[in-house]
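step=predict obj=25S rRNA (Uracil2843-N3)-methyltransferase n=349
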Amino acid sequence: MVKKSSGKKATTTTQKVAATVTTPPVSPEVQGDPKHQQRLLDIFSEAFYSVLSADTFPTLIQEIKQALFNRDFSTAFGREDYLEAYAARWSPTRALCYSHVLRGLESHLSPITTAAAGSDKGRSNLQVVSIGGCAAEHVAVASYVSQCSLEGGHITLVDSAPWSQVASLMHARLTMPPELSRYASASAKASNCAFIEPERLSMSFVQKDVLSLDGRTVADLLRLGPGEGRDPLLVTLFFTLNELYTDGGIGKTTSFLTSLGRSLPNGSLLLVLDSPGSYSETALGKEKKRYPMHWLLDHTLLKADDASVKWEKLKSNDSKWFRLPDTLRYPMQLENMRYQMHLYKLERC
């Protein structure tokens, strides 16, 4: 569990939300480099310093929690101050978790990186399309590109909420050196640098409801990166798929996943993270039945009728903990998290 920092940047209290979990009574395993993780947290605390230190922050968090509890997503994600507060409160832990997951999948991700023209042998680029993604996914991809010494990476963030300003803010914080005090030493100024060089990370944000898109528009989304849809991609659905099933319906979500499979370049990967034990409900005649999210996902991808599209399940875990080192510091207390993970690869026949 991350401890609340004691400096002036911290004026908030610990917030408990329905999505957070209590650490089980076992010894936590080391998950990631604490020094690298602290730098990721610093990016969030610097980007949202005014948000975290505002007297209104606890109230905003409570209002967002209430809207989420009521499944009123248009309210929860409809105001700029709500979006900033959400990103400051919930995105840091997820960013560290996603970074850890991506790093653990390096053996699967390496084959889909594409060599850039004129690059040195062994240096490559990763293209990511993040459905329902914003700050956490953005930072996690930057972390992966940085840690794996890739020449570059591009992430297309797709969400129905207006995350454009938050995405631009995070991109600036990732690709620009942190602001230093006017009294900073010469050595501090000399060593001050961006988390990742701007030429190594590009980002685009698209405000769309993916369940409303037809097959052609889905294909267009996949062409926004440097590869223009020709090279294999990583598509992520992080804590998004069950919401699509629950609120958009199984039919629409299945249609979207089918369009995705038909539009993705051969060899692309689909990575799904969500809450463990997620269920979605659908009506069959007069009765309603509940299905595990991962069962619906497997049924859609692995038992598809389209003979030209074949998905292979590479890796799966129904429940896994991500635990934060006690040494990390952030302006408010953060919790460990639990998730399920499923990785698929597209092979065209």
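step=describe
The CA atoms of residues 46 and 180 lie 11 Å apart.
step=end
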